[in-house]
Structure formats: C-alpha cells, structure tokens
Amino acid sequence: MSGSVMRMMGDRDVRGVQSSVTTQLPNSVRYPPARLPACPTYARAPVRISFGGGGTDLAAYYARFGGFVVSAAIARYCSVGIRASRDGGIGIESADYGVREGFAAGEALPVAGPLALPQAAVEWFLEREPGLRERGAELALASEVPPGTGLGSSSAMAVALVRALAAHTGRALDAAGAADLACRLEIGRLGMPIGKQDQYASAFGGINAIAFSPDGVRVTPLGLPAGVVAALDERLLLFSTGRSRAAATILRQQQADTVASPAVAESLHRIKALAHEMVAALVDADLDRFGRLLDRGWREKKGLSGKISSAAIDGWYEAARAAGALGGKIAGAGGGGFLLLYCPPQRREAVRAALAGCGLSELPFAFDHAGARVFDAGEARPAAAPGD
Predict the structure, then answer these.
(1) Catalytic residue of the set 198, 257, 295, 368
(2) Nearest to 297 by CA among 325, 323, 269, 261
(3) Does domain 11-381 sit in CATH 3.30.530.20?
C-alpha cells in the first residue's frame, strides 16, 4: 500500500507511546511565532535529526533492497498561517525568503521559484477541494531554522502546508496521509531528488525507526523510557557550521551511483545495518554505544561522495572528538548545515568550548513527541525549545 504506515510494534506499545504525548497545551507560551501574521488557523511541523540509515530512504535504494533509518523530530518548527482571502484569490508570503506573491481567483499557479512548494500544495488542493476555489486562501510561512541546513526543513514545511490546507478546506488528513502527500509534492510534483524519511519524521514526531519498501512506509516509535530520552537529550549537541549546502546535487549523484556502483550499494547496506544497531543500542539504553555507532556511520557515509564532508568539517569533527565527543555526523545529505555530536555529560562543556573556539554556534533543542499539529488562533502551544 503506497503511502500507508504500518506499525511494527504491538498495539499496547503504540498506545503507550501515544499516551505520553500531551494533548492539552500549557498556557506558558503563545502560538504562532512572531513572524506570522494573525490568522484563524496555524499548522506547524517539526524538523528532524537523522541518526543513521540516511540514503537508504532514496527510491534508487529502497526499491531494490528496502530502506531503514532511525531519526528524531526536534522542537524547532516550520509554521504556516492560513485564512480565507477577501476576493477568492491566493496569496503566499514567505518570511524566510522575503517574498510575497498573489494570484487572482481562477489564475493558474506557476509552481516555480522560491515559492514552488507552497504553490504546488495549493495547486493540489485547488484541483480537489471546490471550497478552496470559492474561499481562496492567504498563506504565511516561517521557519525556525534556515533552509538548506540539513534538518529537513523543506519537508517539514511541506507537511505544515498540507496540514494547514487540509484544516482550511475541512479535508481529513492524518499523520500518514500528511507525510505521503508531502512526498508526492516534493518528489513527484517538484522532482526533488530526495528521500522520504524527513516527511514521515516530521508528520509523526518522536524518536522512530522508519522502514521503506515499494509497498509502503512503516513507522515504529521506539517507545524509550522517559529517563533514556532525557539522558539521550543531555548527550546530544547541535552546532551550525554557518554553511548551507546543495543537497539536491549530492542526492542526485547518490541516486545514480546507487544504481551504477556496486560499491556504493554495499556501503549503503552497511549504513543500514548500523542503523539497526543504533536502534538496538537505544532500546538497550546503551547510549555510549549509540554514540560510537554515530561515528562509524559518519565515516561510512563520507565514503559515498567527496561532497559530503570537507577539510573544514573534518577539522571541526576531530576537534570535537579530541574534546570528548564519542561520535557525530553532519545532519542531512552533508556538505554543510548542522553538526550533530554525542558526548558524555562530563565532556559536554569541553566539546562546547572546542567548537566555540572553531567559530561554530550551538542550536539548543529538545525532542518533539507530537509531530505536525494544527492550532486555532490564540491557542497556546507546547513549551518552546531551549534558548527560545
């Protein structure tokens, strides 16, 4: 079943994970972010950090061998505000790109340029929801992390867009449906050479193992005890390299190499096996082993392409290792963005000091366990990420 989500855990385990998610929002912090205008409805979707298995979620690999990744959603969000337009037209504004475009009622959207993603989402709903053609929509987009930094913000924005448009038109859309539609827009409509892990990580939230095959996508919440989650959170640090990267170039070449090069396919087999080992280490609460597996996975990933790392990235990583980090990786496809590190608590400040000395800035974060959400105007949101 294409786009379906099947659980690998039993019903009791899945219910246990779901019941841990807060359903009542505390009143401590108001939503939406300051960069979004007043709207009756907002949707937000978390970005993610990928621990292992990246590259096996590309169709060139999973269609032949089956893919497997382990990742976590984090409390940094892409958000969309939506309201009916005055004249039935479509308006789209992006705070990240500093761009606004408007289209008259009935006017075809170009689906091009910096607003191609929201245009594609609106196009999809216009073709299926007569109410949108009648009411129109004004959309405002904003992200808490810059585009092109390896945290899956494009896919998180795609998930937020489809959740906002579904709420605006009254269309029923669960987490699986939102992730599947986001994949169709990004990969199918826009032809982006990306995988599927980011959309599912964002739509579902939490710490998950995600399996990919030609028959569908299977999301498994790891169901880690709260103490293990807190300990993992304490040991992970995220630093901005200050460099964006051309993920499409890296991933397009990787798709081609996966088919043409047996050596690349073998490397991806090892990357997938390491992702399974990471899951086992997390379930066993053997966190230092998990950290060392991050190191093995990063060294394996660098062999896929000379564009994944650089002399500067290697220098920062080795400085962190010398200061006490057990492992880490560049988030996303590589080439820049954010550097994720695992370090024992007693070495955390030393690692921070080492990377501050390299000129890198830390992005505080916490795990997100709720996934993509829709809010009414004025509704409080869950507590903000550290540093907000």
Answers:
(1) 198
(2) 269
(3) no
> For position 382, what pLDDT does the model report?
40
Share of the chain above pLDDT 90, in %: 75
- 39 burial class (0-12, 13-18, 19+ CB within 10 angstroms)? buried
Per-residue confidence band for 32, with pLDDT thresholds at 50, 70 and 90: low
CA distances from 252 to 59, 193, 245, 314 (A): 11, 5, 13, 23
What per-residue string of b and e applies to 155-173 under the rule 16 or more CB within 10 Å gives b? Answer: bbbbbbbbbbbbbbbebeb
Q: Which two tokens stand for residue 153?
A: 């913000």
198 catalytically annotated? yes
Q: Cα 81 to chain center, whole Å?
A: 19
Three-class DSSP category at 324: coil
- Tell me the pLDDT of the chain averaged across its residues: 87
16 has pLDDT over 90: no
Strands 90-94 and 99-103: antiparallel
- Domain ranges, ordered by start, for the chain: 11-381
Coil/strand/helix, residue 82: strand
